[in-house]
Structures are given as structure tokens and as C-alpha cells.
Amino acid sequence: MKKKDTSKKSDSNALMEIVKCPTKVVLLWKVVGTGELDEDLEAETKAECEKHGKVGKCEISELPGAPDNEAVQIFLEFERAKSAINAIVDPNGRYFGGRVVKACFYNPGKLRFLDSAEHV
Q: In this entry, which stretches build a coiled coil (predicted)?
């Protein structure tokens, strides 16, 4: 008897759960680790994500003391929620530099607080 591949179905269900309540702000993490930021990351990330729609703001922060795979967070504010949905679906679970990228929506109201936080 042949075993069914349920990994694609569970991935699809997880993705459907993520896009239930979309916002215009996307949070990416696991793109790079602690101390791996460079001056090109913001421009490269913004350019890559703009294939889904206009990105108004791209901000990167590194959380001191956080685990390596969670320390660097990239926030992208799109002009439209539909663009943000596409930006979630595309990179989520893809490999970048040997890491599996994670993406989710982020509360736009909380993004305002990042303006006073330290950014790279």
C-alpha cells in the first residue's frame, strides 16, 4: 500500500491559516542570523519583495539576546494587503543562504513603535 504524502497538505493548511487575517505589513525572519547583516540586505529584500507590489517601508532590526534564528527581523509595509499576501506566500518556507525563511503578517499599529527602536 502506497503512503500518502501529507506534508504538502499540512503546509497548505498552515499557509491558509496565516493568510486568514492579512495586513499590509509583513514580518520576515530566519533570512540571516545574528551578526550577518550587511548594508545591502534592506535594498535587496525590498527589491525582491517589490515584485509582489509597492513596498512603502522596509525596516530591519536585530534583537539583542534573541536566538540566532529569531534575532534579525525584517518588516515590510506594502501599499496593499493583496501585495502583502503574495509576499507571505512566496518566500515562506523557501531557502535563503541555507536557512528556511519564515513570513507572517504583522500588526501595522505596532510597526509605529519600531520607529524609536534601534534599526540596522
A: none
